[in-house]
Specification:
By secondary structure, the protein is of the alpha/beta class. Helix content is 35%, strand content 16%. Helix 1 (15-25) packs across helix 13 and helix 6 (227-240) crosses helix 11. The protein has helices spanning 15-25, 61-64, 93-106, 150-162, 174-181, 227-240, 259-262, 276-285, 300-306, 320-324, 338-350, 353-367, 373-392, and strands spanning 5-9, 30-37, 57-60, 80-84, 111-114, 132-136, 165-168, 188-190, 214-218, 245-249, 267-270, 288-291, 312-315, 330-333. The radius of gyration is 21 Å and the shape is globular. Strands 3-4-2-1-5-6-7-8 form an 8-stranded mixed β-sheet. A 6-stranded parallel β-sheet has the order 11-10-9-12-13-14, with helices on both faces.
Length: 393
Amino acid sequence: MRKLKIAYFSGRMFSDVDLSFLMEAKEMAEIDYYVPIFRKYYKGAAFNIQKPSPKFGIYPAIELYPELTPCSRLIDANRFFVVNSFAAHAWQPHNLWLYVKFVWRLRKYDVIHITDFPQYFEIPLYFLRKKIVLTVHDPIPHSTEKCNAPLVLKARKWGFRLLNYFIILNAAQKEECVALNHLEKKHIYDSRLGRYDYLRMYERQHTNGAKGDYFLFFGQIASNKGIDYLLEAMKRVHTQYPDMRLIVAGKGKYPFDISEYKQLDYIEFRNRFIPDAELAELIQGAYCAVCPYKDATQSGVVMSAFAFNKPIIATNVGGLPEQVEHDKYGLIVPPCDVDALANAMMHLLSHPEKLQEYADNIERDYSEGPKSWKEIAKKLNIIYQEIAEKNKQ
């Protein structure tokens, strides 16, 4: 089986999963990694870019953004590029022209793997649609306003209509996605998220006195995240375990008034972008991570926590039960249920031996086991080979 030439085109918001995958996949295929950078959108996940470059075009990523140099410890810097558009409005003609040139460059690849539905000036990608496989991170859109914006929904509609091949990351929502978008099952491939091992470059060699005296919520602040239920649950936990704290870390506008909770000395809000080094420190120091979501698909938050074998308390929505597996890697509780969430938190506090049991299970299954990136990359490489063969026919 010859090594295929793959173009992997993915937004900065997925850089955590992408880097973790590419660390393993680089041994199986010749993969060039392309990331779009736009004037207003340049930070995200593993990319803590300080300021967008005014240069316009396709450049080696580290040449244009030296702050991405740590990525060279994980992937080949010679195969890492940014598609750098710098304009006030997405519809400006020279952005479109940049992506026409980008498509011309992509024609040499056997397969083009993208991770979001093309929008705006990315539309020229459809000229190569027979070579494209799209990872659908959200088989069913989240309930947030952003995910249901008209342009986003229109991009999904046309993507499902024009593309032939899709990768779904959780089994729980596959059938609904197929039915909703009138897809052919033979063109839908199954995969999963692995743990975000790229974060392990920030792993501490020793604990430095970390006491694990806080629960941790981290990630984008949004209306579907259930943070209001977590804050109320923490108030109940605190009555029984007054030394425990809660840290809520992530950027975004709270959909409710948090002034009451800001007065509580056992709840800390870090309402800003959290760089990787800080995130890794927070995860490693936490007692347990919590995902109290009201709705979800699969969650990269779970895989970030699993990078350090940190167990999770999550809700029974979307693909979370598939990821966390109740009483194996953590606990699953009903969504929007303060009592159930508080009880789960207190259960783990009263049974600390469970944390080690869950951590051992995560390490066994996600490092070298069936859920490891090695196994995921093998299956994706088979998908690439199959698509490449179909395009030859």
